[in-house]
Design goal:
heterodimer, A: about 300 residues, alpha/beta, Rossmann fold, Beta-Lactamase, six-stranded antiparallel beta sheet, five-stranded parallel beta sheet, 9 helices, disordered C terminus, B: about 220 residues
Chain lengths: ~300, ~220
């Protein structure tokens, strides 16, 4: 099992040390311990944490302020409020949206329960702000095969997206892959997007589907109406086709966006499917090439070893 | 000594028992009996079960009163409610904990976790949790927070071997949002009314009847 990194925020040194010791436990957890909201913010910026455990009362704010920083920087990271403060003393004003786990520190065996909860929240991805596909682990494993640095398909995708943007007369056309926490744009004609947090990405909804997703007006759709990030990116209309591998895993999407509401005619959507199929073929060809090269390298190394043994 | 299969069962409903840790989305029109169906799925089968309501459409006190009317045993050490209605009031005597607004999902999550721990600590090894309904959260809170809240809730129920029953009226949210929310659940119980007869069917849960089964629900 890989080592987890937990950020522990507590101003009380004794409590913090006890929490740290309980989490480190069998040695599979690394703990960074800090004592304030400001220090927690710095720590979040400098190093990704798999989970954050925070007290409620902090010298420069509350544990919910820490949660708000998490939602701004790495929104998927689970946060546990580990505190003696009873729920009625916790002020959620201006923090109604952060959503955290709560574990009373004064209950029996609280720190054992905390260690279990950290493991569960990380493993089950319980605090993500978007729907998770049913077989997400398999999907991510499949994505790894298609998403290797030596498989750079950027030129081909640049051409495809440039053509698509012109053909459909839209603001932006892009190819994006959805990894564990963000969407990464392999090519993007009409904008300079590189990554987008998964909870802000429309494609994270597209990959749940068998067929394409069309949103004619983001402001009229409950899933996106309050998503400010989409407004910042001037996305008001969207059409995306899932990129599905031959084995049935959806790794990303081929998409169009526009800065004002618009409809997409049936013929347009049929053509968009063709663009997506072309993009998926490009990815698949590169994966196969890669596989062949891996096999050739393995064979060569194997032959070399055999020769070495003989001499 | 025989060890009984540890399932949650539903007396008087055409539903087979489900495994611990199961989360079920219940869909149907608000006036078609979905409230009674949700409540009856929460009826405790023995005193070592707990029942926890997250009340967003109707306040906590009224929820518990209606639960009692349907045969729910109000043992306040193991039965309680988180009241998420606008300006809801807490009531310690009746184990009702107010959040103040359906937009405050952080508050709802904290009250839920706290109450869940207490019901557990009071000897309930198994806890049935109902959300009635998810609709006000979807209407008043940002979509991202609703997903985060639903994942937090279903995640805790799963790891604690609980039972989760979340009701939603499909008329209050669009189809896409509903299907995205449904991703977080193990299966669905659909309620419909046709020709004055109510029926339910189950989707996505093993060992359940697939077809529409008539169901008797008294209240409107």
């Amino acid at each position: 099992m890989r080592e987890l990194t937990v950020l522990c925020v507590d101003a009380d040194e004794a409590e913090r040390e006890a929490t740290r010791a309980a989490l480190v436990g069998d040695g599979e957890v690394a703990v960074t311990a800090v004592g304030s909201v400001a220090a927690a913010s710095d720590a979040l910026r400098s190093e990704a944490a798999d989970c954050v455990v925070t007290a409620y009362d902090l010298p420069d704010g509350t544990g919910l302020d820490v949660a708000a920083r998490i939602r701004e920087t790495t929104p998927d990271t689970p946060c546990i409020l580990f505190t003696d403060a009873s729920p009625d003393r916790i002020d959620t004003a201006d923090r109604e949206d952060v959503v955290v786990e709560y574990l009373p520190r004064d209950m029996p065996n609280a720190r054992e329960a905390l260690a279990r909860m950290v493991g569960n929240l990380v493993e089950q991805r319980t605090q993500v702000g978007y729907p998770l596909p049913t077989r997400e682990d398999e999907r991510l494993a499949a994505l790894e095969q298609y998403d290797r640095p030596e498989m750079d398909a950027a030129d081909a995708f640049d051409r495809l997206t440039t053509l698509a943007r012109k053909y459909f007369d839209v603001d932006v056309a892009f190819v994006g892959v959805i990894d564990a926490h963000e969407e990464r744009f392999l090519a993007c004609a009409g904008a300079a997007w590189e990554t987008l947090a998964r909870e802000d990405s429309m494609c994270t909804h597209t990959i749940l589907r068998d067929d394409l997703m069309v949103v004619e007006d983001t402001h009229e759709d409950d899933r996106f109406a309050d998503n400010d990030r989409l407004d910042e990116l001037n996305i008001r209309a969207y059409a995306g086709v899932p990129l599905e591998t031959p084995r049935g895993a959806t790794v990303g999407a081929f998409c169009l966006t526009h800065d004002e509401p618009r409809t997409f005619a049936e013929e347009e959507l049929a053509d968009l499917r063709r663009f997506a199929a072309e993009a998926m073929d490009q990815l698949e060809l590169r994966r196969q090439l890669n596989e062949c090269e891996d096999e050739r390298d393995a064979a060569r190394t194997g032959a070399g070893d055999a020769g070495g043994d003989g001499s | 000594m025989s060890v009984q299969e540890p399932t949650y069962t539903f007396e008087g409903l055409p539903l087979e028992g489900v495994e611990p840790g199961t989360n079920i989305l219940v869909t149907g029109p608000a006036l078609g009996g979905i409230r009674e169906l949700t409540m009856r799925m929460l009826l405790r089968r023995h005193s070592r079960e707990g029942a926890l309501f997250i009340a967003a459409d109707v306040d906590g006190r009224e929820t518990l009163t209606d639960y009692e009317t349907l045969g729910g045993d109000l043992d306040f050490a193991r039965v309680g409610a988180v009241d998420c209605t606008e300006n809801g009031v807490g009531d310690d005597d009746h184990n009702v904990h107010a959040v103040g607004s359906p937009a405050d999902l952080t508050g709802a999550g904290i009250e839920f976790s706290s109450l869940y721990e207490r019901i557990h600590a009071n000897g309930a090894e198994r806890v049935r949790t109902a959300v009635y309904t998810l609709s006000p959260f979807v209407v008043y809170a940002p979509a991202k927070s609703v997903f985060r809240f639903v994942h937090t809730l279903t995640g805790r129920i799963r790891t604690a071997d609980g039972l989760g029953v979340c009701a939603i009226d499909p008329g209050t949210v669009d189809d896409q949002t509903l299907s995205s929310i449904a991703q977080a659940f193990d299966g669905k119980v659909e309620l419909r009314e046709a020709d004055g007869r109510r029926a339910i069917r189950v989707r996505g849960l093993p060992g359940q009847p697939e077809d529409w089964q008539p169901v008797d629900l008294d209240t409107a």
